[in-house]
Specification:
Distance between the termini: 27 Å
Strand content: 15-25%
Structural class: alpha/beta
CATH topology: Rossmann fold
Protein name: Esterase family protein
Radius of gyration: 17 Å
Organism: Paenibacillus sepulcri
Number of helices: 9
Pfam families: Esterase
CATH class: Alpha Beta
Strand order of the largest sheet: 1-2-4-3-5-6-7-10
Helix content: 25-40%
CATH superfamily: Alpha/Beta hydrolase fold, catalytic domain
Order of helices and strands: HEEEHHEHHEHEHEEEHEH
Shape: globular
Number of domains: 1
Number of strands: 10
Largest sheet: 8 strands, mixed
Length: 245
């Protein structure tokens, strides 16, 4: 049974105004760690598919466990909600809403959080996280704004040809560190773009990034393209970027 201490989560709902998004705003949920103190400062994990990371990934419960029992330094989590019907348009590099979403994320969301919460402002203390196309857009936000982001968590990234082409145009990615996993049963996953071998496309993206100097923590594990697989690796992913006290 889950320790009840892990279930005492503080999650604040927020709305960010935006000039880059057609709807003019975006809902967020912000996890505050045990013992949260506005006089301190905290690393921040920024999650695409925010609602799913909290509901299906159980990231707040897992964060409590890491902080309370495993000595991980307290951190904030910002989950950015998405309209599933617009998800591909926002998250895919060739989507019609992609440019606006990326600009919103870097130019409006980050200042909003860092003005309102005691969030650390160095790239080494900002972590982008996403699953599937959420992993894709997290990587591309880091590529588009190298002064802001150096760290990416990618669960079964949907690295379609356009995505790999963009990464291939980079020259020096020594600043970048990624945690990448993919499920060995994801060899014929049906997406809205067709059927893809996610193992193959993740191996190819790993090679592209490593050839340009990025550091990759990479794993292929038994699993499918579902939250039941990704959830198991959230603690390891967070440990990769968050120091222990």
């Amino acid at each position: 049974m889950t320790d009840q201490r892990y279930l005492k989560r503080t999650i604040v709902k927020e709305v960010v105004s935006s000039q880059h998004l057609p709807e003019g705003s975006r809902e967020l949920r912000v996890y505050l760690p045990p013992g949260y103190n506005e006089l301190l400062s905290y690393p921040v994990v920024y999650c695409q598919d925010g609602e799913d990371f909290f509901n299906f990934g159980r990231i707040a419960t897992l964060a409590n466990q890491l902080i309370l029992d495993e000595g991980v330094e307290p951190f904030l989590i910002v989950g950015v909600d998405v309209d599933k019907q617009k998800r591909t348009a926002e998250y895919s590099p060739d989507g019609e809403l992609y440019d606006g979403y990326v600009a919103f994320f870097a130019e409006e969301l980050i200042p909003f959080i860092e003005d309102k919460y005691p969030a650390r402002r160095e790239p080494s203390h900002r972590i982008l996280a996403g699953d599937s196309l959420g992993g894709t857009v997290s990587l591309h936000i880091a590529l588009a704004y190298p002064e802001l982001f150096h760290q990416v968590i990618s669960f079964s990234g949907a690295y379609y040809p356009e995505s790999r082409s963009i990464a291939s145009q980079e020259i020096d990615l020594k600043r970048l560190t990624l945690y990448m996993i993919v499920g060995l049963q994801e060899t014929d996953y049906q997406t809205d773009r067709g059927i893809y071998n996610f193992v193959e496309i993740n191996r190819e993206m790993k090679q592209v990034l490593e050839e340009r100097g990025a550091r990759i923590h990479y794993g292929e594990h038994e699993g499918r393209h579902v939250w039941g697989f990704w959830q198991k690796y959230i603690p390891e992913a967070l440990h990769t970027f968050l120091r222990s006290e």
